[in-house]
Design a protein that fits this description.
Elements (H helix, E strand, L loop, with lengths): L1 H12 L9 H4 L3 E2 L2 E7 L2 E4 L6 E2 L5 E2 L3 E5 L6 E6 L31 E6 L3 E11 L4 E11 L1 E5 L8 E6 L2 E13 L3 E14 L5 E7 L2 E4 L4 E4 L2 H14 L16 E4 L6 E4 L8
Parallel strand pairs: 10-12
Antiparallel strand pairs: 1-9, 2-5, 2-7, 3-4, 3-6, 6-9, 7-8, 8-11, 9-10, 11-13, 12-13, 13-14, 14-15, 14-16, 16-17, 18-19
Amino acid sequence: MKRVQSIVQTLAVCGLALAMVSPLAAQNMGRGTAKVVRIKGSARYTTGNNVWQPLSVGAVVKPGTLIQTSAEKGAYLDLVLGDGDAPLPGRVAAAASVSSSDSRSYTPNVEQNIVRLFENTILQVDKLSSMETGADTVSETQLDLQRGRIFGNVKKMSAASKYEVKLPNGVAGIRGTIYNLEASGVVQVLVGSVVLAYVGADGNVVTQVVMGGQQFDAKTGQITPIANFVQKDLVKIAKESRVGPNTPSKMFTVDHTIYFVSPTTGQNGNSGPPPGDGE
């Protein structure tokens, strides 16, 4: 058991190594925030000491915040990551109630990542940061999905950037992707690719690449095409959140490079050509 816990802890911090930058560039590191742009049903949050407060549309969420959505069927919460100044999808009263909901159209720009928390989900925002190196922007996003299910999109990132979602039994590395993740270890990819590193039933670490149109279940170790009815549901969600197939292609960019997450060394490798323009 200790060995498994140690591996999982290693998985949580593994991923793409950040590029070496000068001390001057390091000073430009920014600590990002997230913003709630939609809520259906209710949600609450805590920043520690198990003191919970209601969440409403327009709330700015800082790293270290634990979010929980209600268990009522159809409830969800949409977060724009790394942008506390994200515009709201319409006029919202400053003192919105905990049960407020807003499902009006909202189109994220090319620089925004969206994550949707479905009902009965617990997600912690661990890290949101960005750094200007002079030649590029290096960003780091770390989320901890403790229970439930999330759906999100990830914009094209620089080679040194990383976006990781920790699961109870592993970690998913995501790039240029529209994805669906369950805390149980089910991964579905609508566009792009996800690299999942997890602890198998035998206690060994397994790495699985899941490509667009595929789904993977860590419990069974099986990778299969996404069923048509499931894919339609994912497309519907993408349309609702304005991150997917119903928006012009310029609204999101797909990076087809496959990045392999090392669960033991914290280093990465890749196959295929260097990241291009996503076409």
